[in-house]
User: What shape does this take?
Amino acid sequence: MTDIHPRSVDSLADLKSLYAAITASPDFQRAFGDPIPLTIIEPGEEPGDHDMPEPLAAQAECGAVIAAIFDLLTDTRLEPLAAEIAWGFVNSFHFVANKLERREDALADELRDLANRPDLSEVYNQQLEEKQLLCQSTTEQREAIECMRDYAAEMYRAQSGWPWSPSKGSKSRPARALQASSATQVAVQDYLRARDLAARERYLPAGPIVVASGHADWHDWQPIWERLDLILERIPHMTLVTTAQRKGFDAIVAAWAGDRQVPLVAYTLPGAGRKAPFARNRKMVELQPVEAVLGEGSGIQANLYQALRKASVPIHAFRKADQAAAATVGRPKASWRNRRS
Assistant: This one.
């Protein structure tokens, strides 16, 4: 879909006409186009029939916010700060989505507790219905915010040349909204089972796993992208797992995954202390990867190399000394990207 910049439209009537003439992406149609009949906007409020933002308007404004930052600062002395500021805007969506997810989990626990001690009273049934509706409403809010976050992140990638990644917390593709149902005892159990299944699907990597890791001081992205392209030709449904560094080798790999639309799992350190990186290496090998792409680095990378080799995982290794000179290496450009269909 063509990116839309509503601020270039002269009037509200023109804007509505523009929105009516084109269609939002399927993700925005799912997240915004079919809201549950009743919703609770804030805990403690009465259920009501409230509209969602128009799907296309939500998509257009999300893209316009990120594009406006780069448009404003490009070719000025503030241009080096554009990506950092835009990153913060995307991260604000991510922060709110995480807050809603924590609220959703707490509500689901409360709902599960209510369902496990059934009561035939009218008061109990009303509490059950309201708690389920509040949980569904929070799910709907979270999925809408995640949808906006993902589109804003894609705009960030297109403008900056590098993928957006959160400062903390997982980033997953939004799952399809759970449909509303009556709040009977059976419906509550069905709702909880459906919610648990949707949560597992959101975070469970699909497809063969390819591990990638390297030094944070790495600049030559082209040979890494070329090797990953060859792997993708052989393993079109691969999931890429990195060691979650936000610069250097891991950032280059993440940029490729964002460009090729390959699922990416950033495997952060499990806890603190000197042993944490080596524990992560063991966990990554336990994922049973089918291949690995490694850049020469510290003893942590060497340990991962040895563990993968012991597990008979094919390894594509890159040496730091073989990199092209930093001055001759540009950044990936959106104009020549070979997007997957």
Observations:
- The longest strand covers residues 209-213.
- Strands lie at 209-213, 239-242, 264-266, 291-295, 315-318.
- The two ends are 13 Å apart (CA to CA).
- Residues 122-160 form the longest helix (39 residues).
